[in-house]
């Protein structure tokens, strides 16, 4: 696998292979400390990022490689240089692979095809964020004690994805990965935050309300609840009337927390908007795996780098 | 120069002509049309250039009512010379060019400049379309009357649609004063919000903002309502939705002077290609080559458009030839310019539909000659005395579109490297053979 651009284009076996390698690396990280020795990875971030970038940089360092950093906002791109010219320029420093984040969907695909370097998508517009989906799957499998070496490891698990599906690359990648791994995925979002045609997605259950009987039942049955960040920077126009109304209907509030099964877990890709999509009591509860997600991000990104560079 | 076109099948739906006949052309006009062989005796006695149209179809000259020639101001994309060369190589004897040049064609001086450049180029006829509003800004009317005096025969702000309905009403009333049609790029910009593709299952999957079919439907409905109010002639450009077509059908049934065009790409491509196009495609701007406004719609709209073209609800086919340089297209998908080349692919694409029995040859020819000619008051026909604008077609021609074939200054065509069966092989404007393949000479 030379590139990791989308989860949609991965099959279940490829997904499980990267996850298996992630578990192996977490178990024996010392065996991989020299894997990228002498290799340079370009961290090409043409959109703001803190945790994904730090996670990828940490992953490269733990593999013995070198990072070359690039931050788009401070770049010559704002002076009108094209994406290609920028990348072609940076390549001259010697680059073996590109990790790229960009505000435009598909930009990474198009860049990787033309530059021919191994590429990992660190989030492209509202399209996909495959390593986030991998770390979410990893975190859930680890918590449940399930092995990615078996097919359909998440069979029978009910996972809710709640909130701003429309603008979320995290949701797009997670829908693909979780269903490929066998889980039953339910989306919960107002119609304004859902694409109006999900016909090309895998089979999903979709609920608009979380406050009615069906919504409560789905919450009580869930094995995991993945809360999405409100993508305030991507929203053009009014998608809901106010934060307090959003929290009331679609937030993981204290009241909804009490409806969860004791063994059910809470995920959030971060950064969290406390008191909007998730109450502090839920984010900080023992059922929350939010910090585990951050830690596991490093292991799966190491696995992804090993995959594309081997 | 006298021409004899021998052995061809003449198809001219405007006079219900569909039979083998020979045509004699002199002084820019059709001198005589008669059964095959009728004029053979003249060959030995007079200086006649003979064109062999055996197994070929001879049609009234094709007219593309929607092209962007980019001159003045954007000559790196196209010039009137290069664009009209693409026209004659694609089988078009006339083109109507949109007003979004730099400066905008919103005044008689620019109109005259375009006509002068077209005369110098000496290729296809050029009908400049005047802007509806000054600078295409949608704020105040352009100097419509003066432009009409200079040669404009239709008005449009095309890709910068007039969103203010009161202003559009005034524009229609004023246009009706001079009896010219207003061409509407029907898009509610408040609803489409600059989205780069069609809204639907594909945009949901790819995470792009979508331009819903409703944004066209709303504006088609508005234009029809205003046509009813003002009595103006309204032409809907590049219609792309089933619902838009239904509205046009009803407007025609109500007796309004409403016409519509469709592009070949909306007839043969859908938004599914945006999902697939990056696969196995080596050139840089694969996905942006499928980006245009209106966007490629879902396959169900495509079927409705083909049906409506057959029915005559959609009157004509226009290419929306929109040349863009690589700097305009080789960029992030959302930022990439809208539009694709069309002048050299429109006729072969339609001939392909004819050979797949999705469109009759008569309807195809009517939609490319009679109907556009009527919109621009430029009658083309294969009758004695008519202006000798004609296009000769070869349904058996096998060929592949390569960069070398393109007369255009730009290369933004999703049809590059595509194999075609059928195409134009000769284009005659006012009795002058502007372009032909070698096989035509006898």
Number of helices of chain A: 11
How many extended strands of chain A? 10
Overall mean pLDDT of chain B stands at 95
Describe the main β-sheet of chain B briefly. Answer: 6 strands, mixed
**Rg over alpha carbons of chain B:** 21 Å
Total count of strands of chain B: 19
Structural class of chain A: alpha/beta
What is the CA–CA distance across the termini of chain A? 8 Å
Structural class of chain B: alpha/beta
Q: Unreliable stretches of chain B, pLDDT < 50, 5 or more residues?
A: none
Q: What is the overall shape of chain A?
A: globular
Quick one: which chains have the greatest interface?
Answer: A-B, 30 and 28 residues
In the predicted model, the low-confidence regions of chain A spanning at least 5 consecutive residues are: none
Topology:
The complex is a heterodimer of chains A (310) and B (442).
Chain A: E1 3-4, H1 12-27, E2 40-46, H2 51-62, E3 66-71, H3 83-91, E4 97-102, H4 107-115, E5 119-124, H5 130-144, E6 158-162, H6 169-180, E7 184-188, E8 205-207, H7 213-221, E9 224-227, H8 243-250, H9 254-257, E10 265-267, H10 280-283, H11 290-309
Parallel strand pairs in A: 1-5, 2-3, 2-4, 4-5, 6-7, 6-9, 7-8, 9-10
Chain B: E1 2-6, E2 9-12, E3 17-20, E4 22-26, E5 29-34, H1 40-43, E6 48-52, E7 57-60, E8 62-67, H2 80-89, E9 92-97, H3 108-121, E10 125-128, H4 144-150, H5 165-177, E11 182-184, H6 189-192, E12 197-198, H7 201-206, E13 210-211, H8 213-230, E14 234-236, H9 242-253, E15 258-262, H10 264-268, H11 272-276, H12 299-311, E16 316-317, H13 326-329, H14 346-355, H15 361-375, E17 390-400, E18 419-429, E19 432-436
Parallel strand pairs in B: 1-6, 2-7, 8-9, 9-10, 11-14, 12-13, 14-15, 15-16
Antiparallel strand pairs in B: 1-4, 2-3, 4-5, 7-17, 17-18, 18-19
Helix pairs in contact in B: 2-3, 3-4, 5-8, 8-9
């Amino acid at each position: 696998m030379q590139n990791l651009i989308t989860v949609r284009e991965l099959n279940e076996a490829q997904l499980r292979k990267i996850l298996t390698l992630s578990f192996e690396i977490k178990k024996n990280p010392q065996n991989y400390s020299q894997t990228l020795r002498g290799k340079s990875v370009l961290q090409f971030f043409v959109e703001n990022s803190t945790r994904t970038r730090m996670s990828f940089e940490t992953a490269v360092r733990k593999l013995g490689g070198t990072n070359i950093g690039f931050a788009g906002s401070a770049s010559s791109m704002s002076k009108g240089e094209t994406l290609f010219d920028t990348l072609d320029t940076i390549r001259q420093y010697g680059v073996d692979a590109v990790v790229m984040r960009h505000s435009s969907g598909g930009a990474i695909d198009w860049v990787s095809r033309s530059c021919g370097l191994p590429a990992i998508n660190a989030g492209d517009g509202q399209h996909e964020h495959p390593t986030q989906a991998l770390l979410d799957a990893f975190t859930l499998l680890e918590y449940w004690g399930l092995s990615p070496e078996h097919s359909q490891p998440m069979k029978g698990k009910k996972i809710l994805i709640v909130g701003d599906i429309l603008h979320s690359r995290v949701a797009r990648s997670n829908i693909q990965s979780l269903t490929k791994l066998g889980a039953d995925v339910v989306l919960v979002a107002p119609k304004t935050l859902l694409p109006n045609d999900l016909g090309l997605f895998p089979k999903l259950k979709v609920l608009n309300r979380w406050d009615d009987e069906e919504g409560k039942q789905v919450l009580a049955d869930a094995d995991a609840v993945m809360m999405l960040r409100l993508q305030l920077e991507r929203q053009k126009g009014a998608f809901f009337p106010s934060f307090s109304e959003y929290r009331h209907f679609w937030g993981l509030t204290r009241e909804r927390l009490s409806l969860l099964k004791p063994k059910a877990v809470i995920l959030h890709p971060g950064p969290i908007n406390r008191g909007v999509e998730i109450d502090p009591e839920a984010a900080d509860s023992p059922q929350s795996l939010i910090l585990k997600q951050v830690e596991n991000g490093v292991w799966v990104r190491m696995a992804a780098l090993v995959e594309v560079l081997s | 120069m006298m021409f004899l076109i021998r052995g061809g099948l003449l198809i001219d739906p405007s006079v219900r002509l569909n039979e083998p006949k020979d045509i004699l052309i002199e002084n820019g006009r059709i001198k005589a049309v008669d059964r095959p062989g009728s004029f053979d005796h003249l060959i030995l006695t007079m200086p006649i250039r003979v064109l062999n149209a055996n197994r070929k179809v001879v049609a009234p000259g094709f007219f593309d009512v929607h092209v962007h020639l980019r001159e003045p101001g954007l000559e790196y994309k196209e010039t009137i010379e290069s664009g009209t060369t693409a026209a004659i190589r694609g089988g078009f004897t006339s083109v109507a060019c949109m007003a979004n040049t730099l400066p905008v064609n919103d005044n008689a001086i620019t109109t005259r400049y375009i006509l002068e450049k077209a005369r110098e180029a000496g290729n296809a006829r050029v009908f400049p379309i005047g802007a509806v509003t000054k600078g295409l800004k949608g704020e105040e009317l352009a100097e419509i009357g003066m432009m009409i005096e200079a040669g404009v025969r239709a008005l449009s702000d095309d890709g910068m649609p007039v969103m203010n309905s009161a202003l559009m009403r005034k524009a229609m009333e004023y246009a009706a004063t001079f009896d010219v049609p207003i061409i509407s790029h029907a898009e509610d910009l408040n609803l489409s919000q600059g989205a780069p593709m069609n809204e639907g299952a594909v945009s949901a999957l790819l995470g792009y903002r979508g331009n819903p079919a409703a944004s066209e439907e709303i504006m088609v409905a508005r234009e029809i309502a205003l046509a009813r109010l003002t009595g103006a002639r309204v032409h809907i450009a590049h219609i792309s939705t089933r619902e838009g077509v239904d509205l046009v059908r009803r407007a025609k049934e109500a007796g309004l002077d409403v016409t519509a065009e469709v592009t070949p790409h909306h007839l043969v491509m859908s938004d599914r290609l945006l999902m697939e196009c990056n696969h196995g495609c080596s050139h840089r701007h694969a996905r942006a080559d499928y980006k245009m406004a209106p966007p490629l719609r879902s396959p169900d709209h495509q079927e409705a458009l083909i049906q409506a073209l057959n029915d005559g609800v959609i009157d004509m086919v226009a290419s929306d030839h929109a040349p863009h340089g690589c700097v305009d297209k080789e960029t992030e998908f959302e930022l990439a310019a809208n539009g694709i080349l069309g002048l050299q692919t429109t006729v072969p694409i339609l001939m392909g539909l004819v050979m797949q029995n999705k469109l009759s040859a008569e309807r195809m020819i009517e939609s490319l000659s009679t109907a556009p000619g009527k919109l621009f008051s430029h009658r083309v026909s294969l009758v004695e005395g008519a202006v000798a604008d004609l296009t000769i077609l070869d349904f058996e021609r096998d060929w592949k579109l390569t960069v070398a074939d393109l007369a255009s200054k730009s290369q933004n065509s999703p049809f590059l490297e595509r194999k075609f069966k059928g195409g134009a092989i000769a284009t005659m404007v006012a009795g002058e053979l502007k372009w032909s393949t070698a096989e035509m000479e006898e």
